[in-house]
Amino acid sequence: xxxxxxxxxxxxxxxxxxxxxxxxxxxxxxxxxxxxxxxxxxxxxxxxxxxxxxxxxxxxxxxxxxxxxxxxxxxxxxxxxxxxxxxxxxxxxxxxxxxxxxxxxxxxxxxxxxxxxxxxxxxxxxxxxxxxxxxxxxxxxxxxxxxxxxxxxxxxxxxxxxxxxxxxxxxxxxxxxxxxxxxxxxxxxxxxxxxxxxxxxxxxxxxxxxxxxxxxxxxxxxxxxxxxxxxxxxxxxxxxxxxxxxxxxxxxxxxxxxxxxxxxxxxxxxxxxxxxxxxx
Length: 280
Hints:
The strands form two sheets. A nine-stranded mixed β-sheet has the order 3-2-6-7-1-8-9-10-11. It has two domains: about 1-30, no CATH class; about 35-275, Rossmann fold (3-Layer(aba) Sandwich). The longest helix is centred in the middle third of the chain and has 19 residues, at about 170-185. It is of the alpha/beta class. The chain has helices at about 20-30, 50-55, 60-65, 80-85, 115-130, 145-160, 170-185, 210-220, 275; strands spanning about 40-45, 70-75, 95, 100-105, 110, 135-140, 190-195, 225-230, 235-245, 255-260, 270. It is built from nine helices and eleven strands.
C-alpha cells in the first residue's frame, strides 16, 4: 500500500511509527484550522526609535489584571532599562531573558553562538508547550539583526573562516538556515509574535541588494512597522509607518505619531493604541 502501509519490524527493533499512515494523515487533515487573527509583526528602524516600547505596550492593563504574560527573548539586551523605567507595573507579567551564551576559549571569554541558538530554540519549545498554562499572550524576539550576525559567525566557525574573509556562496546557506529556522519556529507559535530589527531589514523598493534572507523574513511577516524619530526643533517626534498589514490593507502607508516630547517643558505624550488597531 505504499506510503500508507503499516510499519513493519526491522530485525529485533520495535516498529517505527509511520507519520504518513492513513489514519494519522486523515486526523491531521481534518483537524479544524484555527483562524484567529494574530500578530506576526516586524518592527524595524534605527536605534532609539521606539520599537521595543511599542511591542511592550501590547501587554495592556486588562491583560495584567487577567494574569497574562509576554516572553521577551532579548538578544540585544536593551529591554531592562525600558521595563524598569516605563513598565514597572508589568514586571511580574514579563518573562525576560537574554539567551546569549559565553564560553572560555584559549583562556579568553568568547560567545558560544551554537549554544545561544540552542537556548532560543529551547525557549520556543517551552512556549509552544506551556503558553496556555502560563497565559502567554505574545513573544517578542528583540534582536533580528544581531541574530543574523551570530548565525554568520557560527557558520564561519564551522567552516574555519576568518571574520573578515571571503565566503563561498554555498556557505551563506548555512547562515540562512540557522537564522530562518529560528524565525519560522517563533512565527509558527499559536500566539502573537513580534520581531524587532534595525534598519538593515527595511525592504525599500529601490534597495535591490537586500540579502535574500532578509527579503524572506520580510515576506513571512503579516505586519511590518517602520519606526522613525525626527527632531523638529521644539519637539522630538516618534512616528510609526505601517509598511504591511495583511488583515488591514487599507492601513498600509499610514503614519502614526505615537510619541511627542516637548523639548522646553519636557512633557511626553505616548500613545500606541492606534498602531495596533491598524494591524488587526
